[in-house]
Amino acid sequence: LSMFPYPSGRLHMGHVRNYTIGDVIARYHRMRGESVLQPMGFDAFGLPAENAAIQNQISPARWTEANIATMRAQLDRLGFGYDWRRELVTSRPGYYRFEQWLFTELYRKGLAYREKASVNWDPVDQTVLANEQVIDGRGWRSGAPVERREIEQWFVRITAYAEELLSGLDTLTGWPEEVKRMQRNWIGRSNGIEIDFERLDGKGVIRVFTTRADTLCGVTSLALAPEHPIVQDLLPHHAAMRAFVASMRQRETREAALETQEKRG
């Protein structure tokens, strides 16, 4: 199963590379006499499709379906061995009705909730970007400078299953250790304590989580992230702080870049 493409209009060389690799693997196992299922589909929802439809003065549904038809024909011409009888298109009711049902079940059981969080906002595509989609402070698709915004959004309470997910990784055979390490990091379980530090201005406390309670006696200062609510409260009164926070919002957000960036404060 290769990752379903987003129907942006035409295949590019990245698509050809990925799907060639998947097809070679499928053909290898098929030639060994194994029963192989290789489906294909289209991850078709998204604001970029709506924006493109507005730009081209066509409904998003017609725009998306036309792109799917084009890309399906291109995949066929490349000779890939897909079973199109099992095609999935996420923007069609036959598929997303089950997504809606699943979300409703998560909400009923208290596993889906709304909360404010800091996100990468693309002002042109009018959508949230993952850290890996921000290149040199700009959106990977639009090229617009990315803004950091506090937006209320939906979350799924993955933490309720953290222990089960972690223990399940130990049962996987044949998985690269690097992939399992990435999954453990994504789950992100840490064992530690929370401690409250009183603010010098008397306006409440700053709650800190630490995995090293034995080092607390040596604490001399606390550092707050640029998007922390306390920092936001101070910005109207400190021009230098506003300039610093603005510069931090333009920094790389990709994980690989964050590991090598110089710490500033």
From TrEMBL:
Domain Aminoacyl-tRNA synthetase class Ia: start-end pairs: 5-188
GO function terms (MF aspect): aminoacyl-tRNA deacylase activity; ATP binding; leucine-tRNA ligase activity
A single BP term in Gene Ontology: leucyl-tRNA aminoacylation
Entries under PROSITE patterns matching the protein: AA_TRNA_LIGASE_I
Primary enzyme class: ligase
Matches recorded under InterPro entries: aa-tRNA-synth_I_CS, aa-tRNA-synth_Ia, Leu-tRNA-ligase, Rossmann-like_a/b/a_fold, Val/Leu/Ile-tRNA-synth_edit
Pfam families cross-referenced by the UniProt entry: tRNA-synt_1
Keywords carried by this UniProt record: Aminoacyl-tRNA synthetase, ATP-binding, Ligase, Nucleotide-binding, Protein biosynthesis
CDD domains, alphabetized: LeuRS_core
Family: Belongs to the class-I aminoacyl-tRNA synthetase family.
EC number: 6.1.1.4
Protein name: leucine--tRNA ligase
GO cellular component assignments: cytosol
